[in-house]
Design goal:
The chain is mainly alpha-helical. It folds into two domains: 4-89, Orthogonal Bundle (DNA polymerase, domain 1), CATH 1.10.150; 117-252, hpI Integrase, Chain A, CATH 1.10.443.10. It is built from 14 helices and two strands. The chain has helices at 4-18, 24-43, 53-65, 70-89, 116-131, 137-153, 157-161, 191-208, 230-243, 253-266, 271-278, 283-286, 290-304, 306-314, and strands at 174-178, 184-188. It has a two-stranded antiparallel ribbon. The longest helix is centred in the N-terminal third of the chain and has 20 residues, at 24-43. The protein is elongated, with a radius of gyration of 29 Å. The model has no long low-confidence stretch (mean pLDDT 85).
Length: 315
């Protein structure tokens, strides 16, 4: 006599084919996934058609222990959801045990970043080129300023390239940046960034004359936006990386923004302060950097906690 669960899986697949027009590959995938779940549950004395939420959680936990990626676990859960919805709609079950199950969370990928040494090499190269005679002085000083500003402030590239020309006329070491939703925030400038801005302002004045601060944008360009397009900056940044001996594929304006945040946290900055500087509305967005904090705290304990010091002596 055939297992009732097997018969109901067969009915489910027939429905998916006839009513939903599911492709052969999809049907085979559903069949494999349901068969795998059935085998696991049967080993624990539970029929697939009678599985409770905790039984299905145990199955998903089993997949995780087996090393299945979150996306693969989610696909198996999707097959189970479709199957139990079918049973419920056909009156074969009075409930849907998958309704209260959470989808497996995908691990959030850590942002690419640069080491302090690589950033130093990049900025040093830009500064050296900006001080060399010949060539297009304005473009070289513009690149130097762009890199200094990006690493000093952690601005989004869209915020950086669209800075107003009035920035050149200001005094002090703070910038007002207009971010998402026109929300303004105050970001500090490094002395190097201030110096680079002064040098760039001189080159810009020599190029366009009169008062460059009266222009609409700090980085004017003949584009539809009337300022330097972010794609052009990204391209030029990769070229600079290559000249600095840094693998260009690893570098983008966004990577420099991540380096800004990571290096601040490595040196003791508070996560909330970094959130403000980056212009993140929600602290959860900034929490992708908690791995940096965890590494720093681990190092702090290993180097300074009395018990850790004592353990090192006994090794």
């Amino acid at each position: 006599m055939r297992d009732l669960s097997a018969l109901q899986v067969e009915s489910f697949l027939e429905m998916m084919s006839a009513e939903r027009g599911a492709a052969t590959n999809t049907l085979q995938s559903y069949e494999r996934d349901l068969e795998d779940a059935k085998s696991f549950l049967n080993a624990g004395g539970v029929r697939l058609t009678e599985a409770a939420p905790d039984d299905l959680r145990a199955y998903l936990g089993h997949l995780a222990k087996q090393g299945f990626a979150a996306s693969s676990q989610a696909r198996r859960l999707s097959a189970l959801r479709q199957f139990f919805k079918f049973l419920y709609s056909e009156g074969l079950r009075g409930d849907d045990p998958t309704a209260i199950l959470d989808a497996p969370k995908k691990a959030r990928s850590l942002p690419k970043t640069l080491s302090v040494d690589d950033v130093t090499r990049l900025i040093t190269r830009a500064e050296t080129e900006a001080g060399e005679p010949g060539g297009n002085l304005l473009l070289k000083r513009r690149m130097h300023l762009l890199v200094e500003l990006l690493y000093a402030t952690g601005m989004r590239v869209s915020e950086l390239v669209s800075l107003p020309g009035s920035v050149l006329a200001q005094t002090g070491r703070f910038l007002v940046v207009k971010g998402k939703g026109n929300k303004e925030r105050l970001v500090p400038l490094s002395r190097a960034a201030v110096t680079a801005m002064e040098a760039y302002g001189e080159a810009l004045a020599a190029e366009i004359g009169d008062d460059p601060a009266a222009g609409d944008f700090l980085f004017p360009a003949q584009s539809k936006e009337r300022h330097l397009p972010r794609q052009v900056f990204a391209r030029d940044l990769k070229a600079l990386a290559g000249r600095a001996g840094i693998r260009a594929a690893t570098l983008s304006p966004h990577v420099l923004r991540h380096a800004f945040a990571s290096h601040l946290l490595q040196n003791g900055a508070d996560l909330r302060a970094v959130q403000e500087l980056l212009g993140h509305q929600d602290i959860s967005t900034t929490q992708i950097y908690t791995h940096v904090l965890e590494e720093r705290l681990h190092e702090l304990v290993q180097n300074h906690h009395p018990l850790a010091k004592q353990a090192k002596k006994t090794d």
